[in-house]
Amino acid sequence: MTELQRDVVIIGAGASGLTAATRLREAGLSVAVLEARDRVGGRLWTNDIDGATLEIGGQWVSPDQDALIETLAELGLETYSRYREGDSVYINASGTLTRFTGEIFPVEASTQREMERLITVLDELVADIGPREPWAHPRAEELDSVTWIEWLESQTDDVEARDNIALFVADAMLTKPAHAFSALQAILMAASAGSFSNLVDADFILDKRVIGGLQRVPLLLAEKLGDDVFLSQPVRRLEYTADSVRAVADGMTVSARQAIVAVPPNLYSRIDFQPPLPRRQQQMHQHLSLGFVIKVHAVYETPFWRNAGLSGTSFSPYEIVHEAYDNSNYDDPRGTLVGFVSDRKADQLFTLPAEERKRIILTSLSHYYGEEALSPVVYYESDWGSEEWTRGAYAASFDMGGLHRYGADLRSPVGPIHWSCSDLAAEGYQHVDGAIRMGRQTADAILLNRT
């Protein structure tokens, strides 16, 4: 078995771990990055499927994501805007399709007023509570004791307004049912993006893409680190004292002064910590879980929806595919739609044979785009729930009451062990921007305290 000595061992070669490793090595420390998969990138993965380049995981860049934008510039990566010319589509509970422009769905005037009022209320709460320490706010316990849907029900009797506002957090972001997480967790999700209004604005939150795919970020970071990145090395045990660690992987061990665990919290239990982690961390990690979503890719010979004057942007909390977008690649004459199926709807679809599941999903897309959507030349489902080293999407969130109860210790080191991933971020939570922010923050904390 290979035995290495390093200043810092990093577990996980996603954007967060690789950012931390890069920053540490630039400061003169030696590092080793151990990755369980046979590739780098974690939840970023650009792959060729049947001749089509698809972004299996994360892919978008929004204007507020300063850390990601800075990293793209440093790596010499270019972006392009998501196609958004033309009308968006909304389908209501009765199945009626309406074309629209702007951010607010085309609903009855009274429902529109309620949606706008709710967005204003949420924007005010978000501005007051913020993303960094929501658990410390005077209303934290109150808001963490009521579910997202219960909070919405307390605010309005308009069912369609509730369904639509709930969609932006439950289906679209946390990928959990609206009764499974708290209003405080929903507010944190919005605060991490700058405001609730930003979550509502698809042109903001899904602004640009990286030419060649967002996985190029971790790929280029790993390339710079060279032989200090080790693939197919899942860490099975992490032994630690007050000032040392020893990571034991399948084919190697790394002894170091400090460790960074840069994987999602639901995977912490895959590591045998010796001695066991303190009681507080053991309890906290049991209250964090990932949601579940199917990311659907459908590639067509041409982006036919554009000829009909459609942008490709579509929404409905009442459809199997609750949202979909034009996801065509840069300078590619073919057209690609990407759609999303979340939580219980995804559960139900995975009880069906693959062909039946495909038929149902494409039928839902056809409700937005017409019969041409039924016949893609390439079809693929990103199923992160069955990825051994992820097991869900998009990021971990607390169950009811967990954020107020445990949030203050979410990022606290345990001796020489530090935690770093997008799931723990304030700004950029559950996005690659947050992963990079956490990688920088964790590396800086180590550098600040080095002797």
From TrEMBL:
Quote the record's binding site residues for substrate: 340
Q: Name one GO molecular function term.
A: oxidoreductase activity
* Every Amine oxidase domain range: 16-447
Q: Does the keyword Oxidoreductase apply?
A: yes
Keyword Metal-binding listed? The answer is no
Q: Which UniProt keywords apply?
A: Oxidoreductase
Query: Which positions in this protein are listed as binding FAD?
Result: 16, 35-36, 235
Q: Which residues form the signal peptide?
A: none
User: Required co-factor?
Assistant: FAD
Q: Which Pfam families match?
A: Amino_oxidase (PF01593)
Q: Which family does it belong to?
A: Belongs to the flavin monoamine oxidase family.
Q: What is this protein called?
A: FAD-dependent oxidoreductase
The source organism is Mycetocola zhadangensis
